[in-house]
Amino acid sequence: MRMQTLFGVLFLLGGIFQAFTAILIYQGHKHYILKIANRKVSMVIYFIFALLLFYLAYINLV
Q: Keyword set for this entry (predicted)?
């Protein structure tokens, strides 16, 4: 397995977990970022981070 493919898979898994965390925050689960920001801001932060990881995965896998 090439190193670029490995990074692509890792970024893809990271993006999936970040999106899952954003969904859990939306559903009302407690998270440490809620001490810093409110629910809407923290969801946006996690979705932007997930999109960034999906983009990095796309670049490394294509």
A: Membrane, Transmembrane, Transmembrane helix
